[in-house]
Structure formats: C-alpha cells, structure tokens
Design brief:
There is one protein chain. By secondary structure, the chain is of the alpha/beta class. The protein has one domain: Spore Coat Polysaccharide Biosynthesis Protein SpsA, Chain A (Alpha-Beta Complex), CATH 3.90.550. The protein is 34% helix and 20% strand. The protein contains seven helices and ten strands. Strands 1, 4, 5, 6, 7, 8, 9 and 10 form an eight-stranded mixed β-sheet that branches. A two-stranded antiparallel sheet has the order 2-3. A hairpin with a 2-residue loop joins strand 7 and strand 8.
Length: 201
C-alpha cells in the first residue's frame, strides 16, 4: 500500500456552540464526508480518528480508530492515525476543511515520494500546517509516541526527531493561489463565510 489518508475528526466543536461541525451540510453532504471524498481518490485507504466509533461514519467505508493516549490533545489523534496507517506515506488532514484541494494534496504527495523527508508540510505566513501534511508513518508514529510520553501535546513536538521538508508558499500557490484549502471551520462566523463563498462560486 502506497498511501493512507487520515482525517482527524475527534474535536468537540466547542467553539461552534454545541453544533457538531463534522456534520454541517456542504454541497449536499456532511462536511466530514465531503473531506473524505476529496481525499479518497488519492489514497489506498481512509482512516478517520474519532473519540469513539460511530455507525454513521462506518457507513462511509472508512476505518475508524481512537486515541491510544486519550487526553493528550491532537498529537494523540495524529499518533493514532499514523499507527493505524498501512501506507508508506499518509496524507493527514483535519475534518473541518471545506475547500480541501486535491490537486495540492497530490502535488505534496509527489514531493514527498520523490524526496528523503519524513514529513512534508506547508509553511504559510501563520506558520506550519501539521493538519494538512504528509507523514511517513513508520518514522513518525514512534516519534509521536515518544513525544506523548514526554508529556507533549503539540503536533510538531516530534519534528526534531525526523526529517522535515517545509513547503514554501510559492509552491502552494501553483495549485491554490488563495490558500483556501487551509481554511478551517471553528466558529459560526467561519461557517457563514463558507456559505457566502459557495454562493458566489
């Protein structure tokens, strides 16, 4: 298996006022399914990391996994996904990316597969994008576990132990000039912005 797809979907949507953002409707489908379907053509398997297995997610023909180290934040979810991945590479994204760009993900995957790094990650003006990146599971899962056991919670905490290729903005802009692929939904006003963009499109 060459590529796994991992979707981090274990958040509590606290900033959405109690609405589970994973199931907000976009183009006639729940947002999480929308992300899965953008990812599916690029990978050999799709893994969804959740707080607990859910029947409605299982119906989408994905594999669900849960944190091995609950309470350690998103890093624990990343570790769980990487540990489960069977591919040589894993495309890892969050569940709240309504404009995920398959062309950009494919370009990042090709860059990963032709290079020597263990992590291929976009760097934007605001910093690194660890929930929109490529990881080599056999190298990154053990490093992530060691970081968790040290008490770390940040995803990038294990990066000093692996080889990291930071992808500059000019590379990203070839496929996504507006960087909309990285726009994530955390608050009602951001969801309203998504709806406005979709109407204008």
């Amino acid at each position: 298996m060459e590529r796994s797809g991992i979707v981090i979907a274990g958040g509590r949507s606290l900033r959405m006022g109690g609405v589970d953002k994973r199931f907000l409707p976009i183009e006639g489908r729940p947002l999480l399914l929308h992300v899965i379907e953008r990812l599916r053509p690029l990978v050999d398997e799709v893994i969804v990391v959740t707080r607990k297995p859910e029947a409605r997610i299982a119906a989408w023909e994905v594999r669900q996994v849960t944190d091995r180290y609950p309470g350690h934040g998103v890093l624990a979810g990343v570790h769980a996904g990487l540990l489960a991945a069977q591919g040589r590479w894993a495309i890892l994204v969050s569940a709240d990316l309504p404009f995920l760009n398959a062309g950009l993900l494919e370009a990042l995957a090709q860059r990963a597969e032709s290079g020597e790094a263990d992590v291929v990650i976009p760097r934007r003006e605001g910093g690194l994008e660890p929930l929109h990146a490529l990881y080599r599971p056999d190298r990154c899962a053990p490093a992530a576990e060691r970081a968790i056991l040290r008490g770390e919670r940040r995803i990038i905490a294990f990066f000093p132990e692996v080889r990291v290729d930071e992808v500059p903005a000019d590379f990203l802009h070839r496929w996504d000039a507006e960087e909309r692929s990285f726009f994530n939904v955390n608050r009602p006003q951001e969801w309203a912005q998504v709806q406005d963009w979709l109407r204008r499109r």
